[in-house]
Design a protein that fits this description.
Largest sheet: 7 strands, mixed, barrel
Distance between the termini: 23 Å
Structural class: mainly beta
Order of helices and strands: EEEEEEEEEEE
Number of domains: 1
CATH superfamily: PCu(A)C copper chaperone
Number of strands: 11
CATH architecture: Sandwich
Helix content: under 10%
CATH class: Mainly Beta
Radius of gyration: 16 Å
């Protein structure tokens, strides 16, 4: 029997280490992955990331057994023929200043999970490794899958 967890109750205070033993002070709350139909080739991961340290940190992507690629995406907006058109653009990283927060949410910036190798269903848990800075700093998570924002 699968247990459902509210992402608002899931709060992780994590200190990831790089190969040099330096600590990366990160707090992650509300992490979740969106359930998609079997025909979909991609989904997204959302969360709130707090930089509790004294130095800037950059979220550079991730990895997971459910996909071959996870990249940070920013939402773009431009005016075309008098209409606002939204899109997405891959970036090398999302910067988080010391003491600041990065919110990844539907309709906004997010981690794009591409080339799905499996399609987790709502209520399941997904293993997700988040990569920071040069990719040497990682945080392993197990996050719930929801069809829509569980707020």
């Amino acid at each position: 029997m699968l247990k459902k967890f509210s992402p608002l109750l899931i709060s992780l205070s994590l200190f990831a280490t790089n190969g040099l033993g330096d600590e990366l002070p990160i707090k992650i709350e509300g992490a979740w992955v969106q359930a998609v139909p079997r025909a979909a080739e991609a989904t997204a991961a959302y969360m709130t990331v707090y930089n509790t340290g004294q130095k800037p940190i950059q979220l550079t992507g991730g990895s997971s057994p459910i996909a071959t690629k996870i990249e940070p995406m920013v939402t773009t907006r431009e005016i075309q023929n008098g209409h606002q058109v939204m899109g997405m653009e891959t970036v090398t990283g999302l910067q988080i200043a010391p003491g600041e927060t990065l919110v990844l949410k539907p309709g906004g910036n997010h981690l794009m999970i591409m080339n799905l190798t499996s399609h987790p269903k709502e209520g399941e848990q997904v293993k997700l490794t988040i990569h920071f800075d040069s990719g040497n700093e990682t945080i392993d998570l197990e996050v719930p899958v929801y069809k829509r924002d569980p707020k």
